[in-house]
Amino acid sequence: MGFWFHYDDKTLGYQCMIPDGHEKPIFYFEALTVVSAILHAIKLPFLPRVFVFTDNTNTVDMFHSLKAKQLYNPLLLTTVDHAMCSNIQFRVAHILGEENGIADALSRFDYTRVIHLAPLMEIYNFTPPQLVLGAEQL
Question: Record's superkingdom (predicted)?
């Protein structure tokens, strides 16, 4: 998983390994990366809006409709809960995979490609957030 943004004259990249032996579909981890990016951006001061690009159209559709299958509902609940508490607006939009090279390189831990695409990027590891559970899962 990988995301990046430019903030306060810095280019910051974040990456996290998908756990070995996971049983969830890759779409789950793509959506979890978007959740992680939004929650990380919410922590930044004076940021009223967050706009996230992803090359996964299912993720875009899920966040646009705020409707998902049960497995993905905690991702939506967590994002909306944090956004409401922080008074932040967010939007998720599609970007072509060819234009999403930095995030792809971060998610693959391909430092050669990251440095080629964003030479001054500072790279950090991240831990995905603890998710809010829906009422039926309590």
Answer: Eukaryota
